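Batch manifest, entry 17 of 40.
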Amino acid sequence: MTTTLAVEMAGLTKSYGDHAVLAGVDLGVPSGAVVALLGSNGAGKTTAVRILSTLLKADGGTATVDGYDVATQPARVRESISLTGQFAAVDEVLTGRENLVLVAELRHLKRPGAVADDLLARFELTDAAGRRVATYSGGMRRRLDIAMSLIGDPPVLFLDEPTTGLDPQSRIEVWTTVRELAGRGTTVLLTTQYLDEAEHLADRIAVLHEGRIIADGTLAELRQLIPPAEVEYVEKQPSLEDVFLAVVGHDGGSSAGVTR
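Output type: structure tokens
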């Protein structure tokens, strides 16, 4: 049975001067799946997401989102996606509810107030709905930003490090929302600096290193890339961190965190 791809990159390249950020990226994201894109600083994760969301033009290769070419059909791509970046894109002058209502109106949705109230409840922001966003904590702003990205139920959602700055409870709430979205058929491409986040959320995980995808598969498949765990009393399964450090060639003393 052929798997339908909601997002597809083939030979994607992007350079800044003599520095090649993307050196031929090939990646497919199945419809309805959550795919995590991991990579070290400067690996090109955010560059890839910016190209897919039509904010940046690639130098070479092709990319499609929801069946539309990002280079030749950017307007159709933008109708099919929503993007949550690393920094909350909220209006601090408006209240939380006003931010949500504004986006719902821009998407020409019926009953924008009801849409806003539903998302405020889902993200536990109802009590702060009437407050200006300037008074929100960093975690509250992040939750509001993600709520705004869900307005209109876009078929493809790009989440660029969506839980940065959130407390553990808020992170869990975001994880729950992502799982719910995937259950409804939304395709999610997630970049994250938290390896446990990829382990908990992703159906597939791709590792971007030196401008190329060097590993791509389920967590179980990626675990096969390193030798079996030594057994003393119980078998210790390799974590995603072990896999990541192994495939990018880092030694065991490298930092566990990965960012853009």
